[in-house]
Design a protein that fits this description.
The chain has ten helices and nine strands. The chain is an alpha/beta fold. Bound molecules: adenosine monophosphate (AMP).
Length: 279
């Protein structure tokens, strides 16, 4: 596996590929099996797989965990060596944000809903870093996880609106045995948090099950989820909602099979998100 640190390294790497397709998996490191599953998915599209690890400062709010975010580069490299990754891009902040650079790519509306409300500016950081990474890598395929469903929708819109020459693909959410979605932030959970964290997925499953059993009133579906969450006082709910799968607007009356259930909650000081198809 090649290690690329600069723009020049990237350019030299691309030159060796002579225009062959590149699948790109951007990450913030602290890799887990969920990340690795995206690499496996990439193999279906090309043999040239580029992974990046960059803890992007612009997507963290002032009171968020940027400095505490787990950085485990040695372990990450060991893990990546067990995968078909061709090259690992480890940019300095300066490479992504050259000094004095002020240009922004903003996706209005979608970025202000749900996680965008609780984390103002977060998705602007995401669109900007992904846009810059796509420009630098010139990747033909971008692979993102379904786990960050809102992020996927926003990047999909950015690619569409700017006619970026990249095919966006989505990998399914990998989960722990109890259903907890794998996440780098799960490292923050203590023993008790770990026991209760699967409740988020159980809430989504409960709503899905009720819908499959014929209930389609959004209010009733959400109430069944809230009832379950109410049993665990250690969970502080940010939002639980059923939304249109593209616009992410809340379904106010009757839910439809393709709708998405989204949840975000804090367990202790750890904020977790998850989502599920209604059907
Ligand atoms: P992150 O390092 O958290 O920024 O995530 C990098 C990529 O991995 C994003 O596209 C995530 O959606 C994806 N990802 C994170 N967790 C999982 C998971 N449990 N299963 C599948 N993909 C995931």
């Amino acid at each position: 596996m090649l290690i690329l640190k600069t723009k020049e390294d990237l350019r030299a790497f691309k030159d060796t590929l002579a225009g062959a397709p590149i699948a790109f998996i951007p990450t913030m490191g602290a890799l887990h099996q969920g990340h690795l599953s995206l690499i496996q998915l990439a193999k279906n599209y090309t043999q040239h797989i580029l992974v990046s690890i960059f803890v992007n400062p612009t997507q963290f709010g002032p009171n968020e965990d940027f400095s505490a975010y787990p950085r485990t580069i040695t372990a990450d490299c060991e893990l990546l060596k067990t995968t078909p990754t061709t090259a690992l891009f480890l940019p300095e902040t300066q490479t992504i944000y050259p000094s004095g650079s002020t240009t922004q790519v903003i996706v209005p509306k979608l970025t202000t809903l749900w996680c965008g409300k609780s984390r103002p500016g977060h998705f602007d950081g995401v669109t900007n870093v992904v846009h810059r990474l796509l420009n630098l890598t010139q990747a033909t395929h971008l692979i993102l996880g379904e786990k960050d469903y809102q992020q996927y929708c926003i990047i999909n819109k950015m690619i569409h609106d700017l006619s970026l020459p990249t095919t966006l693909l989505q990998g399914p959410t990998l989960r722990e045995k109890g259903g907890l979605a794998m996440s780098s932030r799960n490292r923050y959970l203590n023993k008790n948090d770990r026991l209760i964290a699967p409740t988020l997925f159980q809430t989504l499953k409960k709503i899905q099950e009720n819908f499959k059993n014929g209930e389609n009133t959004t209010k009733n579906l959400l109430q069944s989820g809230r009832d379950l969450l109410a049993k665990i006082p250690e969970i502080t709910l940010d939002y639980l909602t059923i939304v249109d799968p593209i616009t992410l607007e809340e379904r106010s009356d009757r839910a439809l099979p393709n709708d998405r259930i989204l949840i975000a909650a804090k367990i202790g000081s750890t904020r977790l998100i998850d989502n599920l198809n209604l059907m």
